[in-house]
Amino acid sequence: MNNFYRSSLYASGLSVVVRLYSQDNMDPTTRKGIESENAYVMKGKELERKKREVLSMKVPTKVIKFKLKFEVTRDFGIPGAFVVENRYKKHEFFLKSFHFYCGSWVYPITKTGFKRIFFSDQLYLPKKMPESLVELRKKRTLETASPKTEGPVLGGSTKFPYLRRLKTGHPNCQHNHSRESGPASCFQFHVPPDERISDEKLQELKNNFVEALIRFLTPESTLPHLWDRECPDFVTKVAHFFVPKAAISKKDVRFIRSIIDFCRKLKLPSSHGGPSRSDPSEEQDIFEDIIGFYADKEVEELDYSDKQQIEKLVPKEILNQVVATLALKRHDVSAQLPSIIAEDKFAWAEDKEFGRQMLGGTNPVRIWNLNWWLKALGNERVFILDYHYLEQFLSMINGKGVCAYATRTVLIAPDSSSEMVQPVGIELSLPGGSTRLVVPQETPLWEFAKFHVASNDTAYHQLVSHWLQTHAVVEPFIIATRRQLSVMHPIHRLLDPHFKDTLHINALARAIFLNAGGILETLLFTGEYSMELSSHLYKEWRFDKQALPEDLLERGMAKPGVRDEVVSGPMEHVERDKSSNKAAKGAEQEMFEVDAEMELVLEDYPYAKDGIEIWTAIETWVTEYCNVFYRNDNDVKEDEEIQEWWNEIKTRGHQDRKEGWYDINTFKSLVKALTTLIWITSGLHIAVNFGQYGYGGWPLNRPMLLRKFLPRDDEFMEEMLPDKFQMNLAIAVMDLLSRHTSDEVYLGQTSPQKERPLNEDH
Length: 762
Known about the structure:
Blueprint: H1 6-11, E1 16-27, E2 32-35, E3 39-40, E4 45-54, E5 57-65, E6 79-86, E7 93-98, E8 100-106, H2 109-112, E9 116-119, H3 131-145, E10 172-173, E11 176-180, H4 199-217, H5 226-230, H6 234-242, H7 250-265, H8 284-291, E12 297-299, H9 304-313, H10 316-328, E13 331-333, H11 339-342, H12 351-360, E14 368-369, H13 370-373, E15 382-386, H14 391-397, E16 406-412, E17 422-430, E18 434-438, H15 445-471, H16 475-484, H17 490-495, H18 502-512, H19 519-523, H20 530-538, H21 548-554, E19 558-559, H22 581-596, E20 599-600, H23 606-629, H24 633-637, H25 640-653, H26 667-689, H27 692-696, H28 717-720, H29 724-738
Antiparallel strand pairs: 1-2, 1-3, 1-6, 4-5, 6-9, 7-8, 10-11, 12-13, 14-15, 15-16, 16-17, 17-18, 19-20
């Protein structure tokens, strides 16, 4: 026990309380073992004095042995568990043993909210647990396994493999030192000074966040409309026109005004006399309600219930700024319609649009050529969108208002002249072998099945295509670059612009969006298992398959050619002067010609077709750049910094992924690795990020969770969709994530000197 609070322990014999529970006899009222009377920790015997390292400081500590006396009833039996309550306000202590080894820190109950439960050394399967200890076991498991502000430790294990990330400097969690607590403020945590976002950009991001919340989560003002404010006595004058002035009081005027306000908020009945809202065939009102989210409106303050939910999800600084902004004046807000409904409100529901988005939407990297798996089909125009891996997680995910399937969708290009793919069958699976196949002829079930596919696809997009594959996997490369490559190294210079702000943005993402109980866990159907799913799918990640040509070939979306021979070796026989221009141009031309030989299975695959052009441009630039510094393969082999850099990435940065790495011992392998890395941070990220509002800003197109399984005749679409708060928050998040910032630099441009924050407290 630390000596700096030892005196307070001695001064108060009531600060640490211990109570025993019997394993032999149960209290029928509490359904727990019979309890002893409280025992209080009093003065003890000092056994050892030593120093413990805390935050790089040597802190004097003492090991103290205490004797406790318990009062129990005669029928108490053998103790099977005990509870420790730490009543200190600030100090924790390490409980080494209590007749048997405990080895755990006990933190103040004011910080943890619960007492610590310890059991005897005896091991039990749950079904063999003494009945008197069952409830205690459940309580202890719940407290340990489901903390409210933590997530599972990822990385360094076969169960939860993950990649290296920047040390945050956050303290360990108070009641579990194997986990890391969140930052005191999501905008004030350690990021190396050269990696921090500029103060201006950080403020711009905050302002964008505030604007998105005000636009989509603030209800329309209940104060009088503009006409009423400009003529405040309008109601009075109208009333006096019909009723003598002496016959109407101020109270009557207020009553009339309340009726007008009430009527103004009512929706007029459908002009075509269609069915009421209770009719499940009437979906128009649902669409109109959601479209109303984007309508111009005057806002005054947050709804109280929404504010309570936002407080749990949004950083305090942001919420305070929202409240302060609304307190200054009423705001007129408007929102641009997402592009998916800008021209046609129902285009998103068409099967051909569903297929198009799998090729050119916000997640165009998941579709596979089914013939690549099943050669016997003999048809290269059958495709699959496979999320069957989710089945193993559904027993944990489903419940608490979430209903999810593991889906598989088959799509075809109807004929050889058509480049358009359309879904023709959807398989919906649940744990235990329950499977259902839905085809387009089964309306409206077909539409509901597509909702579930879109929900699967959205979660994969957020957790894997976007976060994992373009943000998280890059972080180990950045760390290794800063640690192993001198700023004078040409490859450091080449890569530096592509790493701009990434570490800080990743830290912000972990603090705001990916934190336990945070925004994405609230919005996505995967909930608290979101990061576990990300870890599970990291097992499939291979660096050698991240190169766009290899990715397309792997998924069967392109036919193999001689693409592997694209990169020519360094120009060993070319003089590095003006006379080399012709040879360099020839090498560039060769690369474009070889690219053309990799034939796409579908010509109208925007991600692939446009992506190959960007990939080739990057590869051309990297090849010419490296040709300036590396004359032959030996130059690459003998570059100690590059070798150490690559070794750290493989063995430390991505130590949980042993497959998919090649040696960088040739000019060609260096160019391939650098091109792949730059592609991930540019072209791939562009494809999966900036279209989020255009597609995901319309909740019916990209629902993040669903609250009903395939509905029957008596169930409605409205009950299936997320609630209003979740949809509005999702739209706000899509709006925020899709925005470009004012300091963005595009491929081919030179980045201006970045303004650094004055200090880390900003």
